[in-house]
Design goal:
homodimer, alpha+beta, L-amino peptidase D-ALA esterase/amidase, 2 domains, 5-stranded mixed sheet, Arg_biosynth_ArgJ (chains A, B), arginine biosynthesis (chains A, B), multifunctional enzyme (chains A, B)
Chain lengths: 393, 393
C-alpha cells in the first residue's frame, strides 16, 4: 500500500536538484530562453526520444554516451532546435560544454525551436556562464523552455509508503500538443529522489508513455526533438515499484493533459474514448484517428454536435466496426444508437450543451469486442492557423 | 498513335447522354440540389467507391446489382449523404425510383451532404418528377452536386485515332479536397461514347486513381460517399486502349486538380514531389505525409519558406532517409542541401518569392533510391476553419 499526494511547489523542492532559467538573448525582449538542471550527486538517467528519422543533434549527442552513463547536468535552450544541422550540430554541443567551468559529468543538452539553423554558440556560452548552480528556481526553468506554450507546465507529487518512508517526483515540460516540429517540440524533464534501479526507469517510462504522451494529439505531427528525460538522484533511499509506476503515470498524464489543453489556441480538451473494440490496436487506431481528425477538431471548435464526422472518422480508420452496433455519445448524451435514428431536436440541444464545456468525453462504443483506449485531443480554430502561419517570426 | 484534344463544352455534347440540375428544396434559397444523367441506350458502368467502413446507402444500393449490370439513369442529390442510415436508407432509394414514371433500368443513386439523416424522400420524388429527360444541361448538373465547392468542376476531351475515327469523354465532379465526410464528399461522374470493353473500365479507373484522386489531399479524411462513376454508351463505336487510359488519366487529373485548388479556402495548389526514394511505397508515404501535414499547410498559408517543417515531416513519415542525402527545393530554389547550410538571406528571399505563387512545387530528393511520387495539396487557413466549424448550418 502507498499514498500519492499532489504537493504544492516544484521539483526544486527535491533535495539535491538545482535549476534555473535565464535570458541569453535567443528570444526577443529578454525573455527566458536558457535553463539548467544540476544535481549535486550523479544521477541515473533514462530517456524516451522522438521516433522521427531526423533526430536532432542533442538527441544524437545523448546517445553517444555509454548505455549506463550517469550525469549531473542538463542544459536546455528554446528558440533553436539544433535539428538538421549535421555533424556541426553535435560539435557545437561539445564546444558549449567544454567552455563552461562547472564540474560537468556527461552533460546532456536539450533544445527546442526552429529547425535547420546552427545554435548561437557564443550566446549560449555567455548565458550559461551566468548560471548559479545553487539556484532552486524551477519556475524560471519552466518559462525558459516555452515556445508557443500559453502557460508553463509543472507537476509535483510525494509518495508515502506504508512504513512512513517517502520519495518525491516532479516535472517541468513544454509543448502545446504533440506538435510543431518547427518551434514547439515536446520536452519533459522529470526529477525524482526515488531509489529506483536503472532497469525499472525505462520500463516505467515506456509503459506509461503509451497512455499519456502518445495518447495526445494537437495536430498529429512528430517533431525532431521530442524528449522525455527521467533523472533520479536516489537521495530518498526509498522505492516501491508499483508506487513509482503509478506516480510516474500521474506525472506524465498531468503533463500530457496540460499540453493538450494548451494546443495552440485550443479552448477544449476532449477525451476520445473508444470502447469494446475488436482489439487493443483497433481501439488505439480509432481513438487516435478521432483526436487527429481535422474535421472532428473544427466541428468541436464550432461546438457543433456533428456526430456524422465522428462516425465517418471511425469508418475511415478501417477498424472492425458495424454501423448497426456503433453507439456514439457526448458525455452521457447518446446521439447515434446502432443505426436507429435518435438525433431529434432535444437530443441535439443536449449534445450542443455538452460541447460548450471546456472538457468533455466523446464515447464511441464499437460493440464488437472488449478492448478500449482513450486518446486526448482538442479543438482547432483560427488561433492555430495564426500561430502556425507566422511561425518563425 | 492518337491525339487528345481538350474541347470546349461539357459532356452533354456526347451523343445519347442527357443531364440537368434543378432545385428540389434540399438547399436553401432555391439553389440547385438535384440532378440526373440519363442515357437513351443502356450504358456499361464501372465505379470506384470510398474505402470508408461505413459506406453510404447509395453505395450499398449500387453493389446490390449484378456484377455486369447496365444502367440508363443516375440520380444525384446534395445536402444529405444518406449515410449511417441503415436499411431504411436503402429502402428510401427504392421508394424514390419506384415513384418515378421514367423507364429506368437499374437506376443508380449518388448522394452528398450531412451524414446521419434520412433522405427527404417526398421532396426528391417531387423534384425528380420535374426532370426533362431531353435536357442537355451539364452546367446545371455540375451546380446541383456542389456542397462547399467554390466553383463547379467539369472537363471534356475528344480523342482522335490515326484512322480519323474519334470518341469523346467528359466529367463533372464535386469536392473541395479529399475532405469532409460531413457535407463535401467527392463525387465524379465520367461519361464517354468510347466502345470500351467492360473489363477495361475498372482497370483504367483503378490505374489512374492512384496518381489523381488518391494523390490529392485537403485534410486527409475519407468520406462515406466518395464515388467515381464511369458510364459508357459505346455510341462512337471507337476504342483504343492506350488512348483511353491516357485521356481518362487527363480527365481524372483535371478533376483532382480542380478539387485541390478548391480546398475550402485554399489559395495555393502545391505539388509535393518526392524523388529518389528507396521504394515506390516510401515515395508515396512521404509525398502524402507532406500534403497532409497541418504544419506544412499552415506554413504555406503564411508563405513562410520554413523548410524545417518539410524535413521534419519526411522524418516523421519514417521512410528510408538520411539528412546527409536529402535535398529540399521550392521550385528550383534549393533551401536544404545534404546537411550543408545553404539557407542564407538571399536564398530565403528567393524561396519566399516562390511561395507567393498560386502554384508551385516542393521537391524532396531523398537520394536513397530511384522511386518517385507526386502528391497534390493546398494551404490551410482561416477560411478552412470557418467553413468546417459552421458546417451543418
Amino acid at each position: 500500500m502507498f499514498t500519492i499526494l499532489p504537493i504544492k511547489g516544484l521539483f526544486d523542492q527535491i533535495e539535491g536538484f538545482y535549476c534555473d532559467g535565464i535570458s541569453a538573448g535567443l528570444k526577443a525582449n529578454n525573455a527566458l530562453d536558457l535553463g539548467f538542471i544540476y544535481s549535486d550527486t550523479l544521477c541515473e538517467v533514462e530517456a524516451i526520444f522522438t521516433n522521427n528519422k531526423f533526430q536532432a543533434a542533442p538527441l544524437k549527442h545523448y546517445q553517444m554516451y555509454d548505455k549506463n552513463f550517469k550525469t549531473n547536468f542538463v542544459l536546455i535552450n528554446s528558440k533553436n532546435a539544433n535539428a538538421l544541422t549535421g555533424q556541426k550540430g553535435i560539435e557545437n554541443i561539445d564546444t558549449i560544454f567544454s567552455s563552461l567551468d562547472f564540474e560537468l559529468v556527461n552533460p546532456i543538452m536539450s533544445s527546442t525551436g526552429v529547425i535547420g539553423n546552427h545554435l548561437p554558440v557564443e550566446k549560449i556560452i555567455a548565458g550559461a556562464k551566468k548560471f548559479d548552480l545553487n539556484s532552486k528556481n524551477a519556475h524560471n526553468l519552466s518559462k525558459a523552455i516555452m515556445t508557443t506554450d500559453a502557460y508553463s507546465k509543472t507537476t509535483m507529487y510525494e509518495v508515502k509508503l506504508e512504513d512512513g518512508s517517502s520519495f518525491k517526483i516532479g516535472a517541468v515540460a513544454k509543448g502545446a500538443g504533440m506538435i510543431n516540429p518547427n518551434l514547439a517540440t515536446m520536452l519533459c524533464f522529470i526529477c525524482t529522489d526515488a531509489n529506483i534501479p536503472k532497469e525499472d526507469m525505462k520500463e516505467a517510462l515506456l509503459e506509461n508513455s503509451e497512455t499519456t504522451f502518445n495518447a495526445i494529439s494537437v495536430d498529429g505531427d512528430t517533431s525532431t526533438n521530442d524528449t522525455v528525460l527521467l533523472l533520479s538522484n536516489k537521495k530518498s533511499n526509498v522505492y516501491d515499484k508499483d508506487a513509482f509506476k503509478e506516480v510516474l503515470r500521474l506525472v506524465m498524464h498531468d503533463m500530457a493533459m496540460l499540453m493538450v489543453s494548451d494546443g495552440e489556441g485550443a479552448k477544449k480538451a476532449v477525451a476520445f474514448e473508444v470502447l469494446n473494440a475488436a482489439s487493443y490496436e483497433d481501439a488505439q487506431i480509432a481513438a487516435k484517428a478521432l483526436s487527429n481528425s481535422l474535421l472532428v477538431k473544427t466541428a468541436l471548435f464550432g461546438e457543433d454536435p456533428n456526430f456524422g464526422r465522428i462516425a465517418s472518422t471511425i469508418g475511415a480508420s478501417r477498424v472492425v466496426s458495424d454501423e448497426n452496433k456503433l453507439v456514439i455519445s457526448y458525455n452521457d448524451v447518446i446521439v447515434y444508437n446502432k443505426g436507429e435514428f435518435v438525433f431529434n431536436e432535444q437530443i441535439e440541444q443536449e449534445a450542443a450543451k455538452v460541447l460548450k464545456n471546456d472538457k468533455f468525453k466523446i464515447i464511441c462504443d464499437l460493440g464488437v469486442g472488449k478492448y478500449s483506449f482513450t486518446a486526448y485531443g482538442c479543438d482547432l480554430g483560427y488561433e492555430y492557423v495564426k500561430i502556425n502561419a507566422d511561425y518563425r517570426t
